């Protein structure tokens, strides 16, 4: 099940890359979405890698989440496929940015990063950077921060960016009254991955007799649930609200980015 959700979520990145390549255009995509998505998956990969591969982080996690049984330890419910998915997703979000800036693809004059988008990007990067600096310089004694806190912060940033990145894309579709250029196939893959990811996390918790660990994995459960919610909204936009307009390509030069 773990590799199944990895395959679905990984596949969800390709339809938009292909559409952009075929049309030589990125007009269907919100620039806020593209940039927040890239930073988000970088944060997710860093968080998952820390929980999976760092003995220091895993020991700190086990100490904070005791089982109450001597000789038995709780460890993060993170698998190798989580790392593979995160690294692959980060790479594909970079490819989308290359299509935006380095390929000469068309975009509308109104397609700009909003002021709120800039604020979220800068604020997230600063928060993560300051946390890393604090632990590096002062260890866990000065401010009470440990590497587990840095990893959890990276995961929380990813959850926050997941919510923030979809809202501008919903708005962009609404302003154009169309989902043209925004692949519904990507959303179907994304939705399937969210269902499988949540199911795998619950199953792992049940098999390890560690259901509380499901909710301790902030990034994974938060991403899955928020993904499901927004994917349903995109499905309604495509098949219900703007179904008739998706056969026509609209270029409205007067559109403004979400502020």
UniProtKB/TrEMBL annotation:
Compartment(s) where it occurs, according to its Swiss-Prot or TrEMBL record: Endomembrane system
Membrane-crossing segments per the record: 83-105, 117-138, 150-172, 184-203, 223-242
Coiled-coil parts of chain: none
Keyword Glycoprotein: no
Membrane topology: Multi-pass membrane protein
Keyword annotations of the record: Membrane, Repeat, Transmembrane, Transmembrane helix, Transport
Gene3D superfamilies xref list: 1.20.1280.290
GO molecular function terms attached to this record: L-cystine transmembrane transporter activity
InterPro entries cross-referenced by the UniProt entry: LC_transporter, PQ-loop_rpt
Highest rank taxon of the organism: Eukaryota
Annotated Gene Ontology cellular component terms: endomembrane system; fungal-type vacuole; vacuolar membrane
UniProt cross-references to PANTHER family, sorted A to Z: CYSTINOSIN (PTHR13131:SF5)
Protein name listed in UniProt: PQ-loop-domain-containing protein
Natural source organism: Nadsonia fulvescens var. elongata DSM 6958
Record lineage: Eukaryota, Fungi, Dikarya, Ascomycota, Saccharomycotina
